[in-house]
User: Which sequence fits this backbone?
């Protein structure tokens, strides 16, 4: 469990001005806090790819946006991420909640490309998007940090540093639900 | 009207607006304008010029931002119409130049060519300032008013099909804003808008 208030504190500390994305259950607690926070603008988009293009424009215009989406939306966003934030070298942190992570771990599976196959990806007791998330980021050349509990919060700060130092998007994989503060 | 008849008056009236072009307008616009606030959404993500322009508009609310979108590009991200209105970007003017084709790939017809009603979709998304033009004189006579006042504004301009070829970037490009990489272009626009790297 990750306390949403701690995540919000770190976003404020990093000077984040806008959070863009599509809601999901795992990020609900964080979204509830953001909706009440006058210092950060929350922009809900109709499809996750929009969030990357709008974020690129926000950054060009001098803002500090963050994307907040589910891993399903990350996969949907492929060309938008590639063609805007990556191609424009935008130092953008993208918070990605990892749907299916718990079931993947419960089955003792690792998200590696080598493990992927039609049989595994179609199993009813697994959520294929969890298996595909890290291999996809690796294939796209997007580095990531993992946020599994409050103890990992320094990784969020590390993601902002990596994004700034590399002039590139960095993903933060949130592998458990956010909880009220 | 011709594309030139659509773009030339805009080049005259744009003032200090950011102008984001994409697809079939990228090179024609560069033949009329060489301005630090011009940005080509080329070598970028297909269908995402309007949402990129929305981001710039939200970041720079005191400055007008114009997006010259195509009809095929607009169809790729229709949800952006809703996002634009919901975000309250009062400084964004979204043009859709309608020629019913994917021009850069050889003028194949877009889905719904001749039937899709973009102004109606814009109204349904919540745009309250919606214009549609086929006549160049009416368009030119209204353009200054369109660019003035609070938006977001949606402008459909019916243009003849053209013959623009595939887009690229690099030092051999005649269009000055296509010579740098997309990353360098983004940084140049950021410097022009904010004075920062």
Assistant:
């Amino acid at each position: 469990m990750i306390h949403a208030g701690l995540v919000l504190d770190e976003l404020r500390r990093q000077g984040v001005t806008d959070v863009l994305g599509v809601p999901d259950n795992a990020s609900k607690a964080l979204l509830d806090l953001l909706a009440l926070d006058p210092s950060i603008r929350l922009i809900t988009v109709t499809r996750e790819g929009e969030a990357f293009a709008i974020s690129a424009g926000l950054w060009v215009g001098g803002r500090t946006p963050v994307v907040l989406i589910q891993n399903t939306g990350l996969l949907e966003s492929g060309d938008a991420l590639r063609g805007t934030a990556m191609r424009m070298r935008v130092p953008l942190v993208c918070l990605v909640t990892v749907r299916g992570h718990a079931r993947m771990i419960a089955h003792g599976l690792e998200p590696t490309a080598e493990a992927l196959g039609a049989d595994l990806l179609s199993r009813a007791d697994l959520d294929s998007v969890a298996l595909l998330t890290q291999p996809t980021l690796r294939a796209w050349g997007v580095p990531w940090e993992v946020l599994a509990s409050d103890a990992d919060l320094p990784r969020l700060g590390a993601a902002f540093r990596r994004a700034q130092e590399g002039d590139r998007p960095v993903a933060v994989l949130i592998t458990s639900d956010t909880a009220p503060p | 009207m011709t594309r030139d008849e659509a773009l030339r008056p805009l080049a005259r009236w744009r003032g200090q607006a950011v102008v984001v072009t994409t697809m079939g307008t990228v090179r024609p616009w560069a033949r009329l304008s060489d301005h630090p606030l011009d940005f080509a959404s080329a070598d970028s993500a297909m269908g995402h010029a309007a949402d990129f322009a929305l981001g710039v508009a939200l970041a720079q609310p005191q400055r007008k931002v114009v997006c010259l979108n195509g009809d095929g590009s607009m169809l790729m991200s229709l949800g952006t119409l809703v996002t634009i209105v919901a975000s309250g970007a009062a400084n964004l003017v979204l043009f859709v130049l309608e020629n019913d084709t994917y021009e850069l790939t050889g003028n194949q017809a877009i889905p719904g060519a001749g039937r899709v009603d973009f102004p109606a979709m814009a109204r349904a998304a919540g745009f309250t300032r919606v214009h549609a033009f086929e006549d160049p004189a009416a368009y030119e006579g209204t353009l200054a008013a369109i660019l003035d006042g609070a938006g977001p504004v949606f402008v459909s301009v019916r243009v003849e099909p053209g013959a623009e070829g595939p887009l690229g970037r690099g030092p051999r490009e005649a269009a000055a804003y296509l010579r740098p990489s997309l990353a360098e272009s983004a940084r140049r626009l950021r410097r022009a808008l904010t004075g920062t790297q």
Notes: The CA atoms of residues 16 and 64 of chain A lie 5 Å apart. The mean pLDDT of chain A is 95. Chain A has one domain: 2-113+129-179.
